[in-house]
Amino acid sequence: MRRILAIMTTTHDPAKSTSWAMGQAAVAELQRLNPRAEVRVIDANKLHIVKNLSCYANGKRDCANPEAGPYRCWAHYESMRDPAKYGGPDQMPVIYDGLKWADTVVFCTSTRWGSHSALAQTIIERMDTLENRGSSYGELYPLEGKRLGVVAAGLHWKTGSVAQHLTEVFRWFKFDIPDEARLAWQYTKDTGYEQPSTLKPAVDLWLNTPQGRAAVTAFGRALS
To answer: Is the pTM of this model over 0.90?
Structure first.
């Protein structure tokens, strides 16, 4: 049975978020194509994720060190030893456990100044422990062979490039990412345009156009 994990990394209200709308459409299509699939959705904005501690220094021997607790992550280990210093216990294990459980991941982000969200970047940096187990310790890559698709949505700046960039990043983790497993939408090419209100109605309309339906269908088929 297919196990699908959607990771939402916007800080917007989900009810008003374009990337949430896109991610939900992508997951719904995957469920349509895989009726028996089990689905989990993580709203990363509700988690307390401690920033990375630059543990890949020292020849990358520190990150993924087996002495750094069950998740082999110093940021998690140190935050559990001294929660007050790090603003509370780290909740990145919600994502670590989800990635271990899933065989298919839908990674969703809003675009910010021509890039992905700061929250998305924090998560990626904290995932380094998973990549380092292969690259630094010679172990099996924990994420190798798992399918992943990228969803990006934004107002006007480089949304397609953001999705392409994240595809390249996640391939370093050994995810299996078909070229068609990118779903991107932006409202306008006018970089001087200032958003007057939520763009969710606009993305909802696009998702119901022939172009939008075709893009979602291609995404779902690529990951199925």
So the answer is: yes
Phi, then psi, of 21 in degrees rounded to 5? -60, -45
- Residue 4 burial class via C-beta count within 10 angstroms: exposed 0-12, middle 13-18, buried 19 and up: buried
What φ, ψ does residue 152 adopt, rounded to 5°?
A: -135, 140
At 61 the pLDDT is 64
Query: What is the sign of the dihedral through the CA atoms of 143, 78, 42 and 18?
Result: negative
Helix (H) or strand (E) holding 129: helix 128-135
3-state DSSP assignment of residue 150: strand
To the question of domain 3-52+92-223 being in CATH 3.40.50.2000, the answer is no
- Dump strand ranges (E) for the chain: 3-8, 38-43, 104-112, 115-116, 147-154, 182-186
Please provide residue 103's backbone torsions phi and psi, each rounded to the nearest 5 degrees. -110, -10
The residues pairing with 162 across neighbouring beta strands, listed in sequence order, are: none
The secondary structure of 15-42 as a DSSP string is GG-HHHHHHHHHHHHHHHHSTT-EEEEE
pLDDT (tens digit, 9 = 90+) per residue, 144-189? 999 999 999 988 778 999 999 999 999 999 999 999 999 999 987 7
Type of residue found at 60: K
If phi > 0 it is left, if psi is from -120 to 50 it is alpha, else beta; for residue 163 that is alpha
